Task: structure prediction
Amino acid sequence: MSDLSTTYLGIPLKNPLVVGASNLVTDISNLIKLEEEGAAAIVYKSLFEEQIQLESYAMEEEQNLYEDWDAEHASIFPMLGHAGPMEHLHKLKIVKDTLQIPVIGSLNCVNEATWVEYAVKMAETGVDALELNFYANVIDPEKSEEDIIDEQLRVLKAVKEAVEIPISVKLSPFYTNAFRVVKKMEASGADGFVLFNRLFQPDIDLEKEEHHYPYNFSSAVDSRIALRYAGLLHKQIHGTIVSNTGILNGSDALKMIMAGADATQIVSAIYKRGTSHVGKMLRDMEEWMDIHGYKTLDEFKGKLAKVNMNDPFAYKRAQYVDILMKSEIFMQYHPKAGEDIY
Ligand SMILES: Cc1cc2nc3c(=O)[nH]c(=O)nc-3n(C[C@H](O)[C@H](O)[C@H](O)COP(=O)(O)O)c2cc1C
Result:
């Protein structure tokens, strides 16, 4: 029987399938089902500072509507303050107390001081680790990449100093050199990396001539960038490599391990196929390992990572490979390449 166990930010996991942050995990009954299906850990939905700010602002606005009320009304309905992050943290604590598997809290803030304040409060719920969701949707043309990275490094260092539990960072793929960013973050204390977040992209409704905001679910080809970075980073960093985006079935997860990831996060797969899909993914992974004679993940982890390969094409200028396919040198390495195209 194959053993799928792995380690995530120093935490032992029974297998590499972690449920990533999404609205799915806010429903405790979903979480119990996911745990029963074999999910190894869950990341709770991010606590967004902006959402708390918006809610506080909306509440203040609403209360201001009644500021002309007489004293009697005011004493019956006193001005209430917004509870800030307390509601989110309360729900997170319930999840942590309910599940047996590790629970990871996720944060996305705007101000440095709030990152630290919320991180400390989140750690107090008893979560096993924190994930800093460095989702930056930059629209300021004056802001340089260096500024953005420096800000994130400052936040990471400050949070790392403030809490004792392990910290992972979840990055977008849109850095000029994501490899360098990962190295710098590791030097600043990150214990692991979730690569990569799928950025939220609004669409346009042509009939209504307005934006709309559908859930962006991944398809299988979206996993290629995570696959490439797992392979590039394997044995180049000490921290945990967690592949994310486009991992829809057991074979996608196995490919990530073979490239060099320690674990994976899945979200779209569960939205599209239901909670039972986690169990199916695990069974498919075990079956593949049995057929191929692997007893543990370590036996094939990183087998196709850059450090273990002679193939000069796999990790270099991938966008040109399609063109190079016709060249003699490429055909020497891949004599069968392209057969299915022509
Ligand atoms: C509805 C929805 C809500 C999400 N909410 C969060 C969130 O709160 N925090 C976060 O870091 N990622 C969030 N994500 C991103 C997912 O965690 C994940 O990174 C992304 O969906 C890519 O993984 P997948 O291909 O398995 O879906 C959300 C995704 C979806 C679809």
In short: The pocket of flavin mononucleotide is lined by residues 20-23, 45-46, 106, 133, 170, 197-198, 215, 218, 244-247, 266-269 (CB under 6 Å). The chain has a mean pLDDT of 88.
